[in-house]
Design brief:
The chain is an alpha/beta fold. The protein is 30% helix and 23% strand. It has two domains: 3-51 and 384-437, Urease, subunit C, domain 1 (Roll); 53-370, TIM Barrel (Alpha-Beta Barrel). Bound molecules: zinc ion. Zinc ion binds at residues 58, 60, 312.
Length: 455
């Protein structure tokens, strides 16, 4: 045995039990009440929880936006990830006019290959199907390459219209893939932005006011409508509003394969943050909503309507956020979260808000299954030995200097957590221990994903 973790409490999405965990050649080889014999390394995890490495299915690394690039690249972003107990991240390369899917992803894969500190997978955002919808013919080849999920933006200049969305839904249905959507109503939010700007209302609060609850909810419902119409599965990224959540719940009650993700910023904060002096730092889209939505999202997690908590990690430097102090349109969208999500959700479990199994389910097991990462997401014999040791008695205050991102500020500054990861193992190798990054760039591997494990 290469590694034995003794005396810990193993947490899976369905149970918690005391066991020793043995690792051999990067895989979980044995889970038993007691494992004897020789091992390269033995760790006493008494008093600690033994969790699967987190799976963050929504990040943007080194994302170009206009003349800016998001603060974390494939090195610093994945380094921050493992220091927050995350061993798998998904990035969202964007296909542009005239470019193929595999070509788009291969470029990003090459950027990640020599620097990634954890394993990585890619979705692909589709923006243009080309003449005669030729790009649809590439979906099968993309799936064979390991790209089994595609994103459609319903806003921004990279959006697709409903006609294109419907074609993509049909194609993903036929190829065992999954369509994901960024749901907001572009026409309405653009009209509202124009009105606020002409009235001189350009502070960060009006970022929220231009895209409040109902702007997101309509698009969520429309997306579900098209998915149900063609009997295709659909996954809604960063769901942030109560009405949209209810629409997801309703569709599922009727037996439709509609899935939802939310992010920690929508669970912790409310739209009131946009009135803060540093309100611009919280600007992301969809906007953070009011307390009713926040409370409903927690309820959605507890009731199993929310399948995944991911981050939409996409921070920008303070000076770049400052561009929009007096004009919210100039604030680059996005916040940090890649290192904060798993500890935040585990702290919610530690304080009784959800169970530890639920935290593991939404942060690791279910997203891994939904997106075809069959070797990830669970402390189970045969899976990759992506393991986190968690000390439920350790108090932790998030502050920039104990984070491992390249960004120069964090919206999580000053947030206190009860319990914190003390070690992360990537395929059996230590990559984080007691506050310090221990891995090496390039240890992360590309994950060739299989078909979505939907049911
Ligand atoms: Zn995103």
């Amino acid at each position: 045995m290469d590694l034995i973790i003794k005396n810990g409490t193993v947490v899976t999405a369905s149970e918690m039990f005391r066991a020793d965990v043995g690792v051999e050649q990067g895989k979980i080889a044995v889970i038993a009440e007691r494992i004897g014999g020789e091992a390269g390394r033995v760790i006493d995890a008494a008093g600690k929880y033994v969790l699967p490495g987190g799976v963050d299915v929504h990040t943007h690394l080194e994302l170009p936006v206009g003349d800016l690039v998001s603060a974390d690249g494939y090195y610093s972003g994945t380094r921050a990830a493992v220091c927050g107990g995350v061993t798998t991240v998904f990035d969202y390369p964007t296909q542009t006019k005239g470019k193929g899917i595999v070509e788009t992803v291969a470029e990003r894969r090459a950027m990640a290959e020599t620097v990634a500190c954890c394993d990585y997978a890619f979705h692909c955002a589709i923006t243009d199907l080309g003449a005669g919808d030729a790009l649809l013919d590439e979906f099968q080849a993309a799936a064979d390459y390991g790209i089994t999920s595609f994103k459609c933006y319903m806003v921004y200049d990279i959006m697709v219209n409903d006609g294109v969305l419907l074609k993509i839904l049909e194609k993903t249905r036929d190829t065992g893939c999954l369509t994901t959507i960024h749901a907001e109503n572009r026409d309405v939010l653009e009209a509202r932005i124009a009105s606020f700007v002409s009235a001189g209302k350009t502070d960060p609060w009006h970022h929220y006011m231009s895209r409040p609850e109902f702007v997101e909810a309509e698009a969520v419902k429309r997306g579900i409508h098209w998915a149900v119409a063609v009997n295709a599965p659909l996954y809604i990224v960063h769901l942030a509003c109560k009405e949209g959540l209810y629409a997801v719940a309703e569709a599922r009650t009727q037996g439709h394969p509609i899935y939802a993700e939310t992010c920690p910023q929508y669970l912790e904060f409310t739209s009131e943050v946009y009135k803060r002096e540093l309100g611009r730092n919280f600007v992301c889209s969809p906007a953070i909503k009011g307390p009713e939505s926040r409370d409903a999202l927690w309820q959605g997690i507890r009731r199993g309507v929310i399948d995944a908590v991911a981050t939409d990690h996409c921070p920008f430097a303070q000076a770049e956020k400052d561009r929009g102090i007096h004009d919210f349109r100039k604030i680059p969208n996005g916040c940090a979260g890649i290192e904060n999500r798993y500890p935040y959700m585990l702290s919610a479990a530690n304080t009784g808000r959800i169970s530890f199994s639920k935290a593991v389910e939404v942060c690791a097991e279910k997203p891994a299954a939904l997106f075809g990462c069959t070797s990830k997401g669970s402390i189970t014999v045969g899976k990759d030995a992506d393991i986190v040791l968690y000390d439920p008695a350790k108090d932790f205050e998030i502050t920039l200097k104990n984070m491992h991102s390249n960004c120069d500020h964090t919206i999580w500054e000053g947030i206190r957590l009860k319990g914190y990861p003390t070690a992360t193992f990537l395929r059996g190798e230590p990559v984080y221990e007691n506050g310090t990054y221990k891995g090496a760039p390039g240890m992360g591997r590309y994950i060739k994903r299989g078909a979505s494990g939907l049911n």
